[in-house]
Design brief:
The complex is a heterodimer.
Chain A lengths: L2 E8 L3 E4 L10 E4 L6 H14 L7 E6 L10 H7 L7 E6 L4 H10 L5 E7 L8 H5 L3 E8 L9 H7 L7 H7 L18 H6 L1 H4 L3 E5 L5 E2 L15 E5 L4 E10 L9 E8 L4 E5 L13 E11 L5 E9 L9
Parallel strand pairs in A: 4-5, 4-6
Antiparallel strand pairs in A: 1-7, 2-3, 6-7, 8-9, 8-10, 11-12, 11-14, 12-13, 14-15
Chain B lengths: L9 E8 L10 H15 L9 E5 L9 H7 L6 E4 L5 H14 L5 E8 L25 H6 L1 H9 L3 H19 L13 H6 L2 E3 L2 E2 L9 E9 L11 E10 L16 H14 L4 H4 E5 L5 H10 L8 H7 L15 H5 L3 H16 L14 E10 L2 E10 L7
Parallel strand pairs in B: 2-3, 2-4, 9-10
Antiparallel strand pairs in B: 1-7, 1-8, 4-7, 5-6, 8-11, 10-11
Helix pairs in contact in B: 1-2, 3-13, 6-10, 6-11
Classes of the chains: A alpha+beta, B alpha/beta.
Chain lengths: 325, 399
């Protein structure tokens, strides 16, 4: 019989006041941002869970009632974003609310170390009970034969750290229940499968490279070193947990985005390397040169053919309770 | 290994340029026919007399050299199609020059054509290549807007002072464009209107951005010793320099977004080829890649017209105005003439052609100098290609 040896939760930062809902009410509900879904939130919860234990999972099970893909694996996206080894299995248990408790029960009766991740975006229709009583979040549990139960402290802190003031019409637009005027820009293309396959460690694992000869870091990974021109002397280096500083930034009113405007920044990483990327969970007025950032796994957009495009964005550090102090 | 250049071995003997703008009345083919006919006519030849063609287009009109040979109904002539982002037109010109210099052909033509407005989109649209979806969604104004706060902070200008500087550049280029019958925007715009315009990206307003447009321009090139068979007033090619950068600025935290390494490199190479030591006092005019107003500011320093950190003062002092010490973009530049990608490099050369021959009408510069510079840039700060070319009215000893 196994036990829970580590856990992590993810409550997105946005809160919608129930008084703004068609059905009214008191208090708030948690809302996944336009660039989040059950998969991306589950990645964030799982990152926290794995950071709290030295146990390496043998298998990942993803449970959700709102799978971004119904007939295509979501668990393997989580697996790739966590940069887990190929030998670790990744399975979906989707479509019913009890999938999560079922997954947890199986994990606890298993002799394997299991990472159970559960996430959901509960929206419903305007004025309905799901909209009012639902919420968006994810939780992850590392289950292993050796048991020492962790304390459940961070959930309350994440719940308390929400940002209110989300306009109801923006919430509806994020969920596809309201269609705003699109920009006069081309619809974004779906990522191509072969390119995604070749670049999986970068796109999902945020794995850069560092030159073994001169130490220069390259984002994305490069075969030829910028500084010493050494070829194929790179070591992989995952930077998902690296912190960085905004070197410069801009607010792009022209770029295509599910929720314009795009805030883009040039991020210089602690320990070297630079990346031009999008920012998230930030108002344009809250970013400055020198803002400290962490990386978060997000859904950039969904192409017209239904393919979700996931990648990493920078968000200000300190927005999450575990980063306080 | 060295860059030797081909100074005074090639001459421009004819040029043509269509009106730029939202040319919904013209196809890619129409624009190509019009610029090439005008260029051939100005050299006193027929298009059929041209031995080989270099066509620059960043992505219009389909594929292959047949995008030019078919509308011109060329009989079995070589057409090389080039692409080098916004420096595409200059790249067509550069390679055409080498073909003449090496003796492969007697008469060649460089043609730049771009048809951007048919898409109906705002701004520029990239070529759709399959990707892993990790490239940021940022647009051209956004990535060039990085120059504005970087320059401001490095040289101690506040936001208001910087807005005055970049607005002054837009004001100047609109003022010049108002005197150019082929420009996309032929209207002077007040400083107040420029300053108050809605923001596109960062602190860049609508008037800080160049015009997205349709257009075409072309040049006829021959060996320098043959030039006077075609015209009494040829331009001699003094320098051609091109650099494709490694993308350092987007990888290296040491890059501060106040310069283009690639431009500095090509400017120094071109000055060495042409024997120019003091560009601000030796050049009659300069046509530079003012895709956004802060770009023109930074270029004044990268091209050696202003000392580092002093470009903004020279802009405010009117150094680069039509009647200034070194007129920059007397035809209105990308800002006002418009920026049909593949045509822009040859459009810049067209203004040199008019100015150095005294044919620029209301905007004629008369400072007694005989050299002119074109500068073309493609990409973004930190990762770009750059071209610098110099042409002149007088022929020296070839090298």
């Amino acid at each position: 019989m196994a036990g829970v040896v580590a856990y992590g939760t993810y409550v997105p930062s946005w809160r919608l006041e129930r008084s703004a809902l068609a059905g009214g009410g008191r208090g708030t509900r948690a809302v996944a941002s336009y660039d989040e879904d059950a998969t991306s939130m589950s990645v964030e919860a799982a990152r926290l869970a794995l950071a709290g234990t030295s146990v390496d999972p043998d298998v990942v099970v993803f449970a959700t009632a709102s799978p971004p893909y119904a007939d295509k694996t979501n668990a393997s996206t989580i697996h790739a974003a966590l940069a887990l080894p190929d030998r670790v299995g990744a399975y979906d248990m989707a479509g019913a609310a009890q999938s999560a408790s079922g997954a947890l029960r199986l994990a606890l009766s298993s002799s394997l170390s299991t990472l159970v991740v559960a996430g959901d975006v509960r929206t419903g229709l305007p004025g309905g009970a799901d909209e009012s009583q639902g919420g968006d979040a994810a939780a992850a549990f590392v289950c292993a034969p050796a048991s020492s139960a962790p304390a459940l402290a961070e959930v309350a802190a994440q719940v308390a750290a929400g940002r209110t003031g989300l306009p109801y019409d923006r919430f509806l637009a994020w969920r596809g229940l309201l269609e705003p005027e699109p920009p006069r820009r081309p619809d974004p293309e779906a990522p191509a499968a072969p390119v995604t396959f070749r670049r999986e460690p970068w796109k999902f694992g945020f794995t850069a490279s560092r030159c073994a000869v001169c130490g220069t870091r390259h984002l994305p990974p490069s075969r030829v070193c910028l500084e010493c021109r050494s070829v194929d002397r790179m070591a992989e280096e995952r930077l998902a947990d690296a912190r960085g500083t905004v070197a410069t930034f801009t607010v792009d009113h022209l770029a295509h985005s599910p929720s314009p405007p795009v805030v883009a920044a040039v991020v210089d990483f602690d320990g070297g390397g630079r990346l031009l990327c999008e920012m998230t969970d930030v108002a344009p007025d809250d970013v400055a040169v020198g803002t400290r950032v962490a990386m978060t796994f997000r859904r950039l957009y969904t192409a017209l053919n239904g393919v979700h495009n996931y990648f990493w964005k920078a968000r200000p550090v300190g927005a999450r309770p575990e980063e306080a102090g | 290994m060295a860059s030797h250049g081909i100074r005074d071995r090639v001459a421009i003997v004819g040029m043509g340029c269509t009106a730029f703008g939202e040319r919904f009345d013209r196809s890619f083919e129409d624009l190509a026919v019009e610029s090439t006919l005008e260029a051939a006519g100005s050299a006193g030849i027929a298009v059929d007399d041209v031995d080989a063609f270099w066509l620059g287009t960043a992505g219009s009109g389909g594929a292959s050299g047949m995008t030019l040979s078919t509308p011109l109904r060329l009989d079995h002539k070589p057409v090389t199609r080039t692409e080098n982002m916004s420096a595409t037109g200059s790249e067509a010109f550069r390679n055409a020059c080498y073909a003449v210099a090496c003796g492969a052909y007697d008469v060649v033509m460089a043609v730049g054509v771009e048809k951007l407005k048919d898409s109906g989109y705002s701004g520029l649209v990239g070529a759709p290549a399959p990707t892993d979806g990790t490239n940021p969604a940022t647009t051209a104004p956004a990535v060039f807007s990085f120059l504005e706060p970087a320059y401001r902070e490095k040289y101690g200008l506040d936001e208001e002072a910087m807005k005055e500087v970049i607005s002054r550049i837009a004001w100047k280029n609109h003022r010049n464009g108002a005197r150019n019958p082929k420009a996309q925007y032929r209207k002077e715009v007040s400083m107040e209107t420029i300053r108050q315009a809605p923001l596109v990206a960062g602190n860049l307003g609508v008037f800080d951005c160049s015009g997205v447009s349709d257009g075409s321009a072309a040049a006829v090139l021959v060996r320098a010793e043959d030039a006077h068979r075609y015209t009494d007033a040829p331009l001699y090619v003094k320098a051609l320099s091109f650099a494709a950068g490694p993308g350092r600025g987007l990888l290296d935290p040491g890059y501060d977004f106040t310069t283009f390494d690639e431009v500095v490199h090509t400017a120094q190479d071109a000055y060495a080829q042409a024997g120019v030591t003091d560009p601000r006092r030796e050049l009659a005019i300069a046509e530079v890649h003012d895709c956004f107003t802060p770009t023109e500011l930074v270029l004044m320093e990268d091209l050696g017209f202003s000392a580092r950190g002093e470009g903004w003062k020279d802009v405010l002092d009117g150094t680069f105005d039509l009647d200034g010490e070194l007129p920059v973009n007397p035809d209105g530049g990308l800002k006002s003439f418009g920026h049909p990608i593949g045509a822009s490099g040859l459009r810049m050369l067209y203004e040199c052609w008019l100015q150095l021959r005294g044919e620029a009408g209301d905007r004629q510069v008369d400072n007694g100098r005989t050299l002119a510079l074109t500068h073309n840039l493609g990409g973004q700060p930190g990762r770009c290609v750059s071209f610098v070319g110099i042409v002149g009215r007088e022929r020296g000893d070839p090298r």
